Amino acid sequence: MKHVEYLKKLGACSEGLAYASRFPTLQAAWGACDRLDWLAWLVTTPAWAEYERAIAPAWAEYERVRDAAWAEYERVRAPARAEYVRVRAPARAEYERVTAPARAEYERVRAALAEYERVHAAAYAEYVRVRDAAWAEYVRVTAPARAEYERVTAPARAEYERVRAAAYACMTCDELRARFTCPEVPE
Question: Are 26 and 8 in contact (CB under 8 A)?
Answer without folding.
Answer: no
